[in-house]
C-alpha cells in the first residue's frame, strides 16, 4: 500500500514528504495507522548523523500512537481496530532480560531493530523500488508503519492520541527514570539538567514522588516557567554563574543532591550532574543520548566517595505491561500531558518541528496525519 511519510534520505538534510510503499505485515508483525507522533530530540540526534546506529534512507519517529489495521500470521495479542502505542523497547516476556525481573531491555527484536529492519532481516518500506530503513522498531513518521507484535502496547481506545503519544517516549522516560531507576523517595533533593520533554517529565515524576527540593537547570531560561509548573522549586541558568554548575548546586544544597538527572546528551553536563550528587550516597542518572565517539569522565574519587552513576532507557518501563496503565493514569489526570504539547503540525510541516526544537521554542511538537 501507499503511505505518506517523512523520509530521512541523508544525514543533516531536512526530511522529505513522499509517498512510500508499505508491504503487508509478515508473521509476528502488525500494520498500524499512526494518527499522531511526537518529535523527540533523539530523532534529531539520529538525523544529525551522530547516531552510530543511524541508517539512511529511513523513516524516523518513535513517539507515536495509532490504530491496528492488519495483523500478520500468528499475531494474537492485538487485532484490527485496537489502539496502540509502538514501543522502541519491546517486551516479549520470554527472553533472558524480560524474565530477569531486573530490566526492561528486552532483546527479542533489538538486534534487527538496530539494523533498521524487521526481525526477518528485511524492510517493509520502499521508495521508488529501493528499500527504506525502519527506525527504533517504530518509524512513526509514516502514516502506515509495520512493527513487531512484541513492540506494541494496547491502550484504552478512548485515550487522546495527541497527548498519549508522548508516553511512547519522552514522558514515560522521565517519569520512569524517577520511579524505576532512581527510586526517588519523599523529601529527597533532585537536580534536573535540561528542561525539554524529558527533563520536565523528570520534574513531574519528582513531584509525584514527593521530592523536597527540585532544582531545574537549563541554559534557556524560557524553559523555567513550565519547570515551575511541573514542580521545580529552584531554577538555575548556568550562564548566570561564573563557577562550574556542579559547584553552584553543591553550594545551594550543602553536600549536593540525592538524585541528579542528565536530560541533554552532553557529556560535560553528565560529569557535572554526577559531581553535584551528594557525598556518600548521591546518584546520577544519565538519560541524554551522546553522539558517536563521545565518552564520559570524572575523577574516580567521585565514586570512591559514594556517588553512583547510572543510566536508563525508556525509564526502565516495560511497555506492554506498564504503558496501558500509564495511559489510564493520564486519562484520570494523574499524569499531566497537555503542557508538553506546545505545538501541533501536519506531517507536511514536520521540518518545522525540528526547527522549533533546535531554537528552544518547543517542548514537544506533535505531528498529526
Ligand atoms: P530537548 O532538546 O527538548 O531538551 C534539551 C534541553 O537541554 C533544552 O531545554 C536545552 O535548552 C537544554 N540544554 C542544552 N544544553 C544545555 C546545557 N549545557 N546546560 C543546561 N541545559 C542545556 O530534548 P529532549 O527531547 O528532552 O531529550 C533530551 C535528551 O534525552 C536527548 O539527548 C534525547 O536523545 C534523550 N532521550 C533519552 C531517552 C532514554 O530512554 N534514555 C529517551 C528520550 C530522550
Ligand atoms: N543508537 C544509539 C543510542 C540511542 C539510545 O541510547 N537510545 C535510547 C532511547 S532514546 C529515545 O528517545 C535507548 O533506549 N537505548 C536503548 C536501546 O536499546 O536502544 C547508539 O549509541 O548506538
Ligand atoms: Zn525519544
Compile the SSE list and pairings.
Blueprint: E1 2-7, E2 16-22, E3 29-38, H1 41-48, E4 64-71, E5 83-86, H2 96-100, H3 110-114, E6 125-127, E7 130-132, E8 144-148, E9 152-155, H4 161-164, H5 170-182, E10 190-193, H6 197-208, E11 214-217, H7 224-230, E12 234-236, H8 245-253, E13 259-262, H9 267-275, E14 283-286, H10 301-304, E15 308-311, H11 319-331, E16 341-346, H12 350-358, E17 364-368
Parallel strand pairs: 10-11, 10-13, 11-12, 13-14, 14-15, 16-17
Antiparallel strand pairs: 1-2, 2-6, 3-4, 3-8, 3-17, 4-5, 5-9, 6-7
Helix pairs in contact: 5-6
Describe this protein's structure:
The structure is a single chain. The protein has helices spanning 41-48, 96-100, 110-114, 161-164, 170-182, 197-208, 224-230, 245-253, 267-275, 301-304, 319-331, 350-358, and strands at residues 2-7, 16-22, 29-38, 64-71, 83-86, 125-127, 130-132, 144-148, 152-155, 190-193, 214-217, 234-236, 259-262, 283-286, 308-311, 341-346, 364-368. α5 crosses α6 (197-208). β11 (214-217), α7 (224-230) and β12 form a beta-alpha-beta unit. It has 369 residues and is an alpha/beta fold. 27% of the residues lie in helices and 23% in strands. The protein is globular, with a radius of gyration of 20 Å. The protein starts with a strand and ends with a strand. The strands form 3 sheets. Strands 3, 4, 5, 8, 9, 16 and 17 form a 7-stranded mixed β-sheet that branches. It has a 6-stranded parallel β-sheet with strand order 12-11-10-13-14-15, sandwiched between helices. A 4-stranded antiparallel β-sheet has the order 1-2-6-7, with no helix packed on it. It has 2 domains: 2-160 and 337-368, Alpha-Beta Complex (Quinone Oxidoreductase, Chain A, domain 1); 174-312, Rossmann fold (3-Layer(aba) Sandwich), CATH 3.40.50.720. Bound molecules: nicotinamide-adenine-dinucleotide (NAD), ligand AHE and zinc ion. The site of ligand AHE has 11 residues, from loops.
Amino acid at each position: 500500500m501507499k503511505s505518506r511519510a517523512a523520509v530521512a534520505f541523508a544525514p543533516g538534510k531536512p526530511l522529505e514528504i513522499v509517498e512510500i510503499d508499505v508491504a503487508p505485515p509478515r508473521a509476528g508483525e502488525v500494520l498500524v495507522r499512526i494518527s499522531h507522533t511526537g518529535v523527540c530530540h533523539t530523532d534529531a540526534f539520529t538525523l544529525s548523523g551522530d547516531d552510530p546506529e543511524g541508517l539512511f534512507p529511513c523513516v524516523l519517529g518513535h513517539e507515536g500512537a495509532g490504530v491496528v489495521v492488519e495483523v500478520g500470521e500468528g499475531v494474537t495479542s492485538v487485532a484490527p481496530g485496537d489502539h496502540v502505542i509502538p514501543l522502541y523497547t519491546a517486551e516479549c516476556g520470554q527472553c533472558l532480560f524480560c524474565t530477569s525481573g531486573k530490566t526492561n531491555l528486552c532483546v527479542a527484536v533489538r538486534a534487527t531493530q538496530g539494523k533498521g529492519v524487521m526481525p526477518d532481516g528485511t524492510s517493509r518500506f520502499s521508495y521508488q523500488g529501493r528499500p527504506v530503513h525502519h527506525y527504533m522498531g517504530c518509524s512513526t513518521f509514516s502514516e502506515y508503519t509495520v512493527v513487531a507484535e512484541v513492540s506494541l502496547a494496547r491502550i484504552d481506545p478512548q485515550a487522546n492520541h495527541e497527548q498519549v503519544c508522548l508516553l511512547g517516549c519522552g514522558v514515560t522516560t522521565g517519569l520512569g527514570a524517577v520511579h524505576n531507576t532512581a527510586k526517588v523517595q519523599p523529601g529527597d533533593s533532585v537536580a534536573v539538567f535540561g528542561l525539554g520533554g524529558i527533563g520536565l517529565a523528570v520534574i513531574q515524576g519528582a513531584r509525584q514522588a514527593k521530592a523536597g527540593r527540585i532544582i531545574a537547570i537549563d541554559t534557556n531560561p524560557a524553559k523555567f516557567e513550565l519547570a515551575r509548573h511541573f514542580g521545580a522549586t529552584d531554577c538555575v541558568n548556568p550562564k548566570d554563574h561564573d563557577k562550574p554548575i556542579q559547584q553552584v548546586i553543591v553550594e545551594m544544597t550543602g553536600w549536593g543532591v540525592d538524585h541528579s538527572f542528565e536530560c541533554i546528551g552532553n557529556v560535560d553536563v553528565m560529569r557535572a550532574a554526577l559531581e553535584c550528587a551528594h557525598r556518600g550516597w548521591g546518584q546520577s542518572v544519565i538519560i541524554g543520548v551522546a553522539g558517536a565517539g563521545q565518552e564520559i569522565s570524572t575523577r574516580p574519587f567521585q565514586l570512591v566517595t559514594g556517588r553512583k552513576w547510572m543510566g536508563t532507557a525508556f525509564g526502565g518501563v516495560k511497555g506492554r505491561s506498564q504503558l496501558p496503565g500509564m495511559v489510564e493514569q493520564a486519562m484520570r489526570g494523574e499524569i499531566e500531558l497537555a503542557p508538553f504539547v506546545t505545538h501541533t503540525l501536519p506531517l507536511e510541516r514536520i521540518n518545522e518541528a525540528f526547527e522549533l526544537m533546535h531554537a528552544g521554542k518547543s517542548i514537544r511538537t506533535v505531528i498529526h496525519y
